């Protein structure tokens, strides 16, 4: 993601990531992130970029984590097994609103915002 080939809704390269997940949906990505921090090549490649996790039920979590980020160059990754966890969905909606309100002022259509959102789920069909 840290190359210029991944762009957001306005065509600007994505620079930062906000990862939303509760419980195991947070711990898995955190494990991978922590493991990669020991690789000097990865550390060098990631310079100038940020990964922030929104992983708790504190309502101020979103407001605290968007400080200093640009909605135009931020990718939101929503990780959930079922997409029924209220806190995960509330954070996803809040970030959609943050990005959408910032970019719609510049004439970006809401449907094009999908370029700044990634969804990670378990792939199982409901029974």
UniProtKB/TrEMBL annotation:
Any one cellular-component term (Gene Ontology): cytosol
GO biological process, one term: glucose 6-phosphate metabolic process
PROSITE patterns xref list: P_GLUCOSE_ISOMERASE_3
Keywords from the named record: Gluconeogenesis, Glycolysis, Isomerase
One MF annotation (Gene Ontology) recorded for this entry: glucose-6-phosphate isomerase activity
InterPro entries: G6P_Isomerase, SIS_dom_sf
Xref: Pfam families: PGI
Record protein name field: Glucose-6-phosphate isomerase, cytosolic-like isoform X9
The organism of origin for this protein: Durio zibethinus
């Amino acid at each position: 993601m840290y190359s210029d080939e991944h762009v957001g809704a306005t065509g600007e390269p994505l620079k930062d990531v906000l990862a939303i997940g509760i419980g195991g949906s947070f711990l898995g990505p955190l494990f991978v992130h922590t493991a990669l921090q020991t690789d000097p090549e990865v550390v060098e490649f990631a310079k100038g970029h940020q990964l922030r996790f929104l992983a708790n039920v504190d309502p101020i979590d979103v407001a605290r984590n968007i400080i200093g980020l640009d909605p135009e160059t931020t990718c939101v990754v929503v990780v959930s097994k079922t997409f029924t966890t209220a806190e995960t969905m509330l954070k996803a909606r809040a970030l959609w609103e943050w990005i959408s309100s910032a970019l719609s002022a510049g004439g970006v259509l809401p449907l094009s915002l999908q370029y700044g959102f990634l969804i990670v789920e378990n792939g199982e069909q409901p029974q």
